[in-house]
Sequence to fold (224 residues):
Amino acid sequence: MELKEMIERAFLKGYVSGSLDVGTVLVCILSTAVIAVYIFMIYKSINRNSFYNKNFSLSLIALAVITSSVILTIQANIVVSLGMVGALSIVRFRTAIKDPMDLVFLFWSISAGIICGAGYAIIAVIASLAVTAALVLFAMMPESRSSLILVVNADSHKREEEIMEIVEKSCRYARTRARNVLKNSLSLTVEVQPRNQKVMMAELMELDGITSASLVEHSGDITL
Fold:
C-alpha cells in the first residue's frame, strides 16, 4: 500500500473498509501522537493551576495513543474486540479530577484517540482547532472579580456588630459563611468583595479585642 493511500485512509476514508498493515498502523499512531502533542501544548499554555503536574500532561499523550491502538484492534478483529471490552470493563479509575478543565482535556485526548483510531484524523484536527479557538476566546474574556474569605478572631462574641459594620462599609458584598462562638472568643468567616483590602484590614485591627484577621483567596464554591 502506497504512503498516499495510507494517509488518505488515516484522515479521510477510515479503516473499516480494508485490512490493516504495519504501515497503516504506524501512520495512525503517528497522526494520533501529533494531535496529542498539540493537545499537550495547549494544556501547558493555558493551565492556571498553582502547581504544574507533568504526569497529567504526559498522560494526555499516552491516553490518545493507547485509545487509538484499542480502536484499531477492535476494528481488526471482532473476537478480540469483545475480549477487550470485557477486560476494560473491570478497570476502575479512582483518581479524583478537581479541576473541570482537566476533565475537558482528558475527554479531548480520548476523543482524539478514538477518532484517529477509526481513520478520520481530519475530524480530530478540525475539532482540535475549534476547541482551541473556543478556549482562547473564553480566556480573553474579562473575569468577574472573585470573592475573598475573611477570617476574624476576637476575644468576645460582642465584637461581631463592630466587625460587620466595618466589613459592610468596606465591601461591595459581604456574607457571613460561618460563626464560631465560644465563651471567651469569636471566630467569623465572611465571604467579601472589598473595595480596598488594606484599609479594611487596618480598620479591623484597630478595633479593641481583635486578636487576628486573615484575608485569603479561594476558587469555586466554599462549604463551611
